[in-house]
Amino acid sequence: MRVKQAIQSLDAFPRAEEHLLLKTQSGAFVSVIGLVIMATLFYHELAYYLTTYTVHQMSVDLKRGEILPIHVNITFPSLPCDVSVDAIDMSGKHEVDLDTNIWKLRLNSQGHITGTEYLSDLVEKEHDAHNHDHDKDHKDSHEEQHAHGFDAAAETMIKKVKQALANGEGCRVYGVLDVQRVAGNFHISVHGLNIFVAQMIFDGAKHVNVSHIIHDLSFGPKYPGIHNPLDGTARILHETSGTFKYYIKIVPTEYRYISKEVLPTNQFSVTEYFSPMTDFVRTWPAVYFLYDLSPITVAIKEERRSFIHFITRLCAILGGTFALTGMLDRWMYRFLEALTKPNPRSGLL
């Protein structure tokens, strides 16, 4: 008997008799508020537990001999689709017929698509690592042809491009460039035209408007939370021209999903520079994207929060809310009791 009483004395939750419990309207009001608060906090805590978070780790990039995909989607509202896309890497190799998937969409003056052209003649050219401009060589290769006049094809091209300029046509270049995983650049310009043909069409480099809108520029598939800093960039020129250069630092990245699936991709940072055309500049306007790869790779891993941590936070939230509503109920009961209790001094008067 004494043992049973000793055990009962350890009860931290003593209960009063049912007929001694007093239920009030204020208590019911506080209870409803407490239940609403606990349900709301429980929902948010459950949603917080079910969402994943990411952990970033850095290490030395050991990848070699892989292909770097460059996803391009750029609109040139003031240039016809006779622009060329050239890719050059810093290895000094001369490779022809790169695996490309580039499309050029003809746009009218309202920006609507009027035609499509598939670009399959992308060429990676051998070059000097410190000189990206090959206009001089381009000029030398066509001096002999110029001396003998333009052929019928050149005349036809001149008329076609001039007509497109008069109609206010533009061009959207989109697709994927597959290049060597080394530093290099790709640029979009009128370098693909005969230098004298370009002179006849535009009447000088100052009239080549390389205004552009970058809808998408990325170096691999996208993962949750990625931010490509050039997406949505618009550079519109009015009564001037020049060369845009975007200096891009690519950071190799691996995104590891909670399902253990690994997504190899790249993120990047960028700085830009604009060089306006002057009378002393002999190059033609272009838009350059000069990229280099970081030796550091970033691993982003999705992780889920601990279930023990979830239970601990849940107990703290529910227990704290229950204790707070209990204190509020006692204060309200005493306050209402003080208001309704008759004043003993008023009975003596």
UniProtKB/TrEMBL annotation:
<feature type="transmembrane region" description="Helical">
    <location>
        <begin position="28"/>
        <end position="50"/>
    </location>
</feature>
<comment type="similarity">
    <text>Belongs to the ERGIC family.</text>
</comment>
<keyword id="KW-1133">Transmembrane helix</keyword>
<dbReference type="GO" id="GO:0005783">
    <property type="term" value="C:endoplasmic reticulum"/>
</dbReference>
<feature type="domain" description="Endoplasmic reticulum vesicle transporter N-terminal">
    <location>
        <begin position="8"/>
        <end position="95"/>
    </location>
</feature>
<keyword id="KW-0472">Membrane</keyword>
<dbReference type="GO" id="GO:0016020">
    <property type="term" value="C:membrane"/>
</dbReference>
<dbReference type="Pfam" id="PF13850">
    <property type="entry name" value="ERGIC_N"/>
</dbReference>
<protein>
    <submittedName>
        <fullName>ENDOPLASMIC RETICULUM-GOLGI INTERMEDIATE COMPARTMENT PROTEIN</fullName>
    </submittedName>
</protein>
<dbReference type="InterPro" id="IPR045888">
    <property type="entry name" value="Erv"/>
</dbReference>
<feature type="domain" description="Endoplasmic reticulum vesicle transporter C-terminal">
    <location>
        <begin position="155"/>
        <end position="329"/>
    </location>
</feature>
<dbReference type="GO" id="GO:0030134">
    <property type="term" value="C:COPII-coated ER to Golgi transport vesicle"/>
</dbReference>
<dbReference type="Pfam" id="PF07970">
    <property type="entry name" value="COPIIcoated_ERV"/>
</dbReference>
<feature type="transmembrane region" description="Helical">
    <location>
        <begin position="310"/>
        <end position="328"/>
    </location>
</feature>
<keyword id="KW-0812">Transmembrane</keyword>
<dbReference type="InterPro" id="IPR039542">
    <property type="entry name" value="Erv_N"/>
</dbReference>
<dbReference type="InterPro" id="IPR012936">
    <property type="entry name" value="Erv_C"/>
</dbReference>
